[in-house]
Amino acid sequence: MSGRAQLMWDEAVTGYDFGPGHPMDPVRLALTMRLVEAYELHRGPLEVVAAKPAGDSTLRLVHREDYVAAVRRASADPASADVAYGLGTEDDPAFAGMHEASALIAGQSVGAAEAVWRGEAEHAVNFAGGLHHAMPGGASGFCIYNDAALAIARLLELGAERVAYVDVDVHHGDGVQAAFWEDPRVLTISLHEHPRTLFPQTGWPEETGGEGAEGSAVNVALPAGTGDAGWLRAFHAVVPELLAAFRPQVLVTQHGADTHFEDPLAHLAVSLDAQRAAAESCHALAHEHAEDRWIALGGGGYAVVDVVPRSWTHLAAIAGHRPIDPTSSVPEAWRHEVFRRTRQLAPLRMTDGRTPYWRDFADGGYDPADRLDQAVLATRRAVFPSHGLLP
Ligand SMILES: [Zn+2]
Ligand SMILES: [Zn+2]
User: Fold this and answer.
1) Angle at the Cα of 90 (from 87 to 93), degrees rounded to 5?
2) Exactly one of 133, 192, 260, 289 is catalytic; which is it?
3) Architecture of the 5-52+98-387 domain
4) Which of these, 63, 263, 285, 347, is most buried using a 10 Å CB contact count?
């Protein structure tokens, strides 16, 4: 089975639709899948699998019964949405079929977890997932069910003893952190824009895990404006050492594309090329430190034509062991499809024309006056000693 990779996909995930004007436009998922197909990744490199929706017993691994009941009610009658559960809000308006669409996305991540844990696939991708803000008892930040936390909970249920979660979305992975706050079996690492300037205003380096799980939550709070070199420097100054020390049996990663400089909702300045480099690093780290098991999820990303489809097609191609040359031209048929669906012009190449590089934290030292280095040091000081590492 070695080398096999699955892409979790059911076209009905595009029913996760908060309606016109909402930034989380499901066209980003459809356009990503069409680009995957244009590169023929579904013919060989990736086996496309549609998993069943997450059932109640699975949802209950993370979510409270009363919350799931509230989602079901809002799904059947959107006018009855209860804002006490975060439903019917500006971020999470209720829509008909909300429960079904959310459970289907969660099911794809849970299915990915099952396939990878059982050895049916080495890697599995669900770019419709990564809904990392959903809390055990409430919706938040465009997220209803937390498929990332559910996948991890399912891995634990299947017998995993150490699972690592790495979240490179521009927003803090607060829901996943909350779900496993007191669970030392799950290491959550989130790199994000500083909570002072961005939703959900958490993810401070001092948030390091609950009692009995000290050091199991890791937060890197990056200054607004951080670009490729700083973002990759921070990733490499924190993630590889922690994974080497923690020795996960599975690596779950969340690849929100909203770190991009074109993203309308946040303030980092990362390019597609650095996003691709981070995906490659996650893949390599899964082989190096996580027994080859890798589950890669999507996440945020609101430049729905220019950024998201290319970013996640690179991710899927990397998982399928057929990476796409960034200099390649975007297939013409896909560009027509983009125009047909959005009346926007699609990008021409699979690159932003950047060549990602970073200076390694270990050699050359750090600059105590540099805000990026201060952020990295704050994180290392907060958690590295808990893992027997020097800050
Ligand atoms: Zn985000
Ligand atoms: Zn691989």
Assistant:
1) 45
2) 133
3) 3-Layer(aba) Sandwich (3.40)
4) 63
Q: Is 314 a catalytic residue?
A: no
Q: What is the residue-wise DSSP string for 268-313? A: -BB-HHHHHHHHHHHHHHHHHHSTT-EEEE------TTTTHHHHHH
Query: 54 near 145, Cβ under 8 Å?
Result: yes
What pTM was computed for the model?
0.98
Q: Is the peptide bond before 200 cis (omega within 30 degrees of 0)?
A: yes
List the domain boundaries for the chain. Answer: 5-52+98-387
In the reported structure, the alpha carbon of residue 323 is separated from the centroid of ligand 2 by a whole-number distance in angstroms of 11
The residue to which tokens 């803090």 are assigned: 172
Which ligand places an atom closest to the C-alpha of 258?
Answer: 1
321 CA from centroid of ligand 2 (Å): 6
Q: DSSP label at 13?
A: G
